[in-house]
Design a protein that fits this description.
single chain, 173 residues, 8% helix, globular
Length: 173
Amino acid sequence: MRSTQLTAGALAATATYALIGLGIASPAGAATTTHEVGNVIECTATIKGRAVYASLYENNLHGNVIQVVIGKGDDQVGGSRQVAGGFIDHKQVHGSIVVGGRRAVIDGHASRRVKRTPVHEEYDDAGQHITVDGYHRKLAKDLTLTWRHRTVQLSCDNAFFYDLQVTKEPIQD
């Protein structure tokens, strides 16, 4: 498992890149379609007077990533790493990463809510027209972050399960 120290801007870019998915090489002019399933949980808090951003991202095709950033400016520490397994198992959530030389642990539970929200998006990125169809389902969640012998409740406004079909087509000039 690899761990990398990152700034908040780099972490946000990493999350966006992971959510869009990695480009897959295909013959010129050919479209590719993938079925992507996973969870996104993005949280904030304050610990020891420092702002916290925490993210748990699961994707069946593009991997699972934990990210935690604590503090701002010169006081900021953070990290991101890809993990082999997921973070949610039988509604129990667990993820950990070393941040500022200390282990940061996210624990709690998350379960899918019944109501599905349809998703349809179309946009251009990196020379490809991308069409996303499927649904999101909000997650009921109760998570904490423990770091440097302190535990705080996380506020996770952006937390959902997704089941999407993603089609990427080269843009023809």
